[in-house]
Amino acid sequence: MLLKSGALPGHLQARQKAGELAPIYVVAGDEPLLAIEAADAIRGAARALGHAERDVLHADARFDWSRLTEATTGLSLFSARRIVELRLPGGKPGKAGAEALSEFAKAPPQDLLVLISLPRLDRDARGSRWVTALQQAAVWIEVERIERQALPDWIGARLARHRQHAPREALEFIADRVEGNLLAAHQEIGKLALLYPAGELSLEQVSDAVLNVARYDIYALVPALLGGDAGRALRLLEGLRAEGEPLPLVLWVVAEELRTLLRAQEAVAGGRPFGVVSRELRIWGPREKLMPQAMRRLPASTLTTLLARCADIDRLIKGLAAPLRDSDPWLELADVALACAEGSP
Q1: For strand 199-200 and strand 139-142, is the pairing parallel, antiparallel, or unpaired?
Q2: Is the pTM of this model over 0.70?
């Protein structure tokens, strides 16, 4: 059973009324705050139904998978109902682990709740036998990332839990300061609840209280460039530079996306459907939605020019001459990002 994280509270409430939770829960995702909250909610519901004892297993590369069998089949001296947590931070159990998880999913023991924590899995991993077995036997909670455009609404909903609300400009201000760091957003929202009473918060109050705790993700550049969000792209580049992100890696991310755009542009111009091209070029998720508008904004000639400018930036990084370019490669890359967002070479 696949379940989005937002639907988990309703599911747990219904199961508690019925007096029994599902035997296996899987929490998968890369948003630490939301994954922690989902796991806490499951533990709380389990404790309310008498699961008083808890065993935690950390499955690293050297994990002995016989310990899973021992933990799930052993008897407890203190509680008839137990929780066994299996944490798989790498998301790859290996051959032995895949076999153990597949076998366990066929017949989970009674009076036992197993909570499995995973990172977000890629498409290849999702098609594996052990994942299929777990999805059939477990309640699989997909912890979805909060994208930048949805972040102000998410912050507003969290403020409402404290009976506070703020104008849109204040929500955008907070989002800019905590982008990519929901744990920090949670802390800042809690701080606002402590500093100010319930009711309307002004932009001035918010700006006085909220720190700049954004954690800049290099791959967040891609949707900013594809979506034509010049302000965000420049803000991300500035943050990445301040955090010491290696410039060659940042340049590679930008250039690779421009190359993908050019390949897609040429294929579609040749009469091939975008749906087929996107699968061949592995364009999925938010990129798949943003790519068509970027293709309309950036013709092949513009993309070719921008890639040539990326080659000049590579020369600057290596200490070579690049005529007509600024000596600071970060400034040149910011100019490329701006041109990409605005659709001009």
Answers
A1: unpaired
A2: no
